[in-house]
Amino acid sequence: MLKLEHIRKQFEDKVVLDDINVEIGAGEIVSLLGPSGSGKTTLLNIILGLTRMDQGRIMFQGQDLSNMPMKKRGFNIVFQDYALFPNLNAYDNIVYGLRNKKGSVSQQEVQEYIDFLELQPHLNKRIGELSGGQKQRVALARTLVTKPRILLLDEPLSALDGVIKESIKQRIQSIAREFKLTTIIVTHDPEEALTLSDKILIIDQGQIAQFGTPQEIVHHPSNDFVKQFIIQQLHIKRQNIYNLFGEQYA
User: Fold this and answer.
1) What is the β-pairing status of strands 199-204 and 207-212?
2) What band does 81 get if pLDDT is binned at 50, 70 and 90?
3) I need a labelling partner for 211 at 20 to 30 A (CA). Which of 4, 38, 78, 229 fits?
4) Which CATH number fits domain 2-74+149-223: 3.40.1110.10, 3.40.140.10, 1.10.3210.10, 3.40.50.300?
5) This prediction's pTM
6) Nearest-angstrom CA–CA distance, 247 and 245
7) Helix (H, G, I), strand (E, B) or coil at 110
8) How far apart are CA 67 and CA 73, in angstroms?
9) What tens digit of pLDDT does each residue of 108-142 get?
């Protein structure tokens, strides 16, 4: 379990996060949802260890990680732009992070991730030859082979459309289930959060507006902000929301 206790972060005179308290269970998919500037990316970076918090505590499996450097936390992230190396082919990108971890992952395990993400036909392709969905899968494979204790994703679907987006959603859900991997996702899109996540943490101006399951948030929004940000936007993706929550919200 990951526990965030009284997390606070301030940049100069602006409080970006204020008293964030959350418990995330093992293997859960949790989306950090909110408008631009709400503090969700800052919270993701604090969990990763990229940004230091001003106050609070991060606990993972009973261990206090609050002052632990990013490299020692054992978490890993797929960035929004994938951060792949264009001069390397797909396979070399996947195994790049293993260069300094010799023996930590077997070739068989690497191959299992490649097969799981259906990347075998693309291993010799340069990054520029891959589609958006293929790049996302390469980025996921590169992260998974390092065996992260928590998987962090920054806007993983923002550059994808239609069928490809739905396919990557299913991949993310399959990864969390197959590997029992706690997954935390930053998104600004309510439809993505509602259809992808086990739970959603909605952040408004640095504070928790609501934390709950998609069904709880749709049927029992905690305040007017949640209603406006979630309920009024459901018509944008009518069919997906109809399938999940029924005609009254489609």
Assistant:
1) antiparallel
2) confident
3) 78
4) 3.40.50.300
5) 0.88
6) 7
7) helix
8) 10
9) 999 999 999 999 999 999 999 999 999 999 999 99
